DNA sequence: ATCACTGGTGGGAGCGCTCCCACAGTACCT
DNA sequence: AGGTACTGTGGGAGCGCTCCCACCAGTGAT
């Protein structure tokens, strides 16, 4: 029963057929047992399991993938260069959540970076080859073609952070609107009233929602919305510094700032210091993300925490469901396939 | 020509057979073309390539893996929890190098964490299923059973940092011995003579080699080796602090310290400050790794830089070679399958 | 007794490739 | 002319699974 030719088999991993022979059953039965089908008698199942153990049988993934037309793998696609991925705790937390959701599954996780054009081309090729059953998409910009590609290939996908209010993909997001409100209301409750907002990149939907939250919190408090108190940032420290400088020039009497990210807040802090303003005595500062930066800032920064790990877990659960019922997502009603998780304000001495 | 049953084919990815029909050639010929075999006439090749393009053909990886008994994937196995992986720039640099080496290859990289027992069990299963053609092993401890498992499964592997002088696996390492010598010689050239050393975890071979380098540099300089100037650390900040405290007690006249890692140096720095010693006036300090910590320390830390990205690239090249000639590694002479890369001293104001 | 059913089971066919053998054609010797 | 040695090509067999159809008891209703 030699294999044909001199193919590089190293000594012989047992096959399902050999397990069947050993257990004295048919191939189909072994397949049923290893796939956990209920339509197998207890005695047979025990016999098969014994044979599996004796032979040290491990199913051949390639054969299974070929026959069943699935890969038992999903990809976490990060449309950023590795560098940013590692720099931000966001991704590490996300990964932890994804790992947790996958841990009692057969599913394998692939981590794919698509920061450069070259990497994106590889990714497209990879997806076209259907080497994954589903895709987890994080931090996707509004004009990214990736979701469309996925839809066209009919590969299930879940996105973290909808691209717009009209997002068609299933998504898991934190409550950017609510988080922003929490931040502003916190500042108001501390007796501040001239509260400025430095936004994130406004082509990111979540950044828009934070602006909305800021606006509504201000007007609900009867303070009205002074557009001059809003200045666009871009999630970077440099942007934060620049925006804060502009704001101080325009409104020297600002007594509080809500920044759309901790990094932005760090930039704002520098500008405030440059201008001789004390934190929090003269100006209170609140950031967003509750990252390591927030904890290590001088003074420690009040910040809005997003449940990132939880988001990773939820996204994964959602994706696994989609993969399991294997229908292209868009074709279904979006019922409750879009979830929003609550944020939490972590109060420190900057406010 | 319908597929049998109602298997979830979504509309029909073209198969190699269809490409063959379209190009008016046989299956074998198409296979030769897409695998870059030279034994195809130019005219035929052109015809096949045209058909591939028209049909948008992408080879089915599962079928290929099954027939050819390979997976076109290698794994980077990190025997640490995700947290440490992300905390240390080491891994991110390594990943960059690996990615670069893989970038003009069909090979896919999998990132696998094996920090917990549970994850290790999954990994073992994964490897047993032969889902990768080769494995890149980083930061493996001396008693790790993983390399043996790999050998037993006959899966090619390359290790970063040999486990001992008798390492049997192909490896790529930086010159720990030479790096340590550089550090110590640098301190001596600055006029220091009471140079202490805080070691790393001594069950890590590289840490041992650094001690060797320290010893030889001291004795070659005619200073002899005072064992009292050597104190064991464990690569952590806490360990560095503790060791430094001990050293200061034992030898209050120390005028320089070579720490086995930047993190260790950070701990040592704290202990020195606690004891009222100024850096570098009273005590000069040199670390190892040239991490972000070194650049941001107060004062900036002189450190030994390892070419991590380069190591990643070399490891990958080595592994690809091993995979390509597909013979189990141990069975071959280890010729020059173990390489050592030079380090570089980055001088800053701490020394 | 006959006729449904039901839970269990065996095994053929097929997934889309790669490998290799066979063979046609051409070229260059004897 | 016949041999030998290529290059280029077609297609059978097989990789190890899953799927599904056929079938074989039993069981209970008729």
Question: What does this protein structure show overall?
Answer:
Two copies of one chain form a homodimer. With 351 residues, chain A is α/β, with parallel strands linked by helices. The first copy, chain A, contains 14 helices and twelve strands. Chain A has a six-stranded parallel sheet with strand order 2-1-3-4-5-11, with helices on both faces. A six-stranded mixed sheet of chain A has the order 7-6-8-9-10-12, sandwiched between helices. The radius of gyration of chain A is 26 Å and the shape is elongated. Chains A and B meet through α4, α5, α6, β2 and α7 of A and α4, α5, α6, β2 and α7 of B. Chain A binds a DNA duplex (30 and 30 nucleotides) through α1, α2 and α4.
Give a short summary of the structure.
Two copies of one chain form a homodimer. The first copy, chain A, has 351 residues and is an alpha/beta fold. The first copy, chain A, has helices spanning 16-23, 27-34, 42-55, 61-68, 82-87, 89-102, 117-128, 146-152, 176-189, 205-220, 237-250, 262-274, 292-296, 308-325; strands spanning 73-78, 108-113, 134-138, 157-160, 171-174, 195-198, 230-231, 256-259, 284-288, 302-305, 338-341, 344-346.
Main features:
homodimer, alpha/beta, 434 Repressor (Amino-terminal Domain), Rossmann fold, 3 domains, 6-stranded parallel β-sheet, 6-stranded mixed β-sheet, 14 helices, elongated, DNA-binding, Peripla_BP/Lac1_sug-bd_dom (chains A, B), transcription regulation (chains A, B)
Task: Compute the CA-based radius of gyration of chain A.
Answer: 26 Å
CATH class of the largest domain in chain A: Alpha Beta
CATH topology of the largest domain in chain A: Rossmann fold
Largest sheet of chain A: 6 strands, parallel
> How many H/I helices of chain A?
14
Which pair has the most extensive contact?
Answer: A-B, 41 and 42 residues
CATH architecture of the largest domain in chain A: 3-Layer(aba) Sandwich
Distance between the termini of chain A: 77 Å
Proportion of beta-strand residues of chain A: 5-15%
């Amino acid at each position: 029963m030699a294999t044909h030719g001199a193919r590089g088999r190293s000594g012989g991993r047992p096959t399902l057929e050999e397990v069947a022979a050993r257990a004295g059953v048919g191939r189909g039965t072994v397949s049923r047992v290893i796939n956990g089908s209920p339509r197998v008698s207890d005695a047979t199942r025990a016999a098969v399991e014994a044979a599996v153990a004796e032979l040290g049988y491990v199913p051949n993934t390639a054969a299974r993938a070929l026959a069943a037309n699935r890969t038992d793998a999903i990809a976490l696609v990060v449309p950023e260069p590795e560098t940013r991925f590692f720099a931000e705790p966001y991704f590490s937390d996300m990964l932890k959540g994804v790992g947790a959701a996958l841990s009692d599954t057969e599913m394998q996780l692939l981590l794919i970076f698509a920061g450069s054009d070259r990497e994106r081309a590889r990714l497209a090729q990879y997806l076209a080859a259907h080497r994954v059953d589903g895709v987890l998409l994080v931090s996707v910009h509004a004009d990214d073609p990736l979701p469309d590609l996925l839809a066209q290939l009919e590969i299930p996908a879940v996105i973290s952070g909808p691209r717009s209010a009209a997002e068609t993909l299933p998504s898991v997001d934190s409550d950017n609107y609510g988080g922003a409100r929490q931040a502003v209301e916190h500042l108001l409750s501390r007796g501040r009233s001239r509260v400025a907002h430095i936004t994130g990149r406004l082509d990111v939907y979540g950044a828009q929602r934070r602006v909305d939250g800021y606006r509504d919190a201000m007007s609900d408090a009867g303070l009205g919305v002074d557009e001059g108190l809003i200045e666009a940032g871009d999630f970077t420290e440099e942007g934060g510094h620049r925006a804060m400088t502009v704001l101080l020039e325009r409104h020297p009497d600002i007594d509080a700032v809500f920044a759309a990210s901790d990094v932005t807040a760090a930039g704002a802090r520098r500008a405030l210091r440059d201008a001789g303003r004390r934190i929090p005595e003269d100006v209170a500062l609140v950031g967003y993300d509750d990252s390591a930066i927030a904890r290590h800032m001088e003074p420690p920064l009040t910040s809005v925490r997003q449940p990132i790990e939880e988001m990773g877990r939820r996204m994964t659960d959602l994706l696994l469901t989609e993969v399991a019922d294997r229908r292209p997502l868009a074709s279904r009603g979006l019922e409750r396939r879009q979830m929003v998780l609550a944020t939490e304000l972590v109060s420190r001495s900057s406010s």
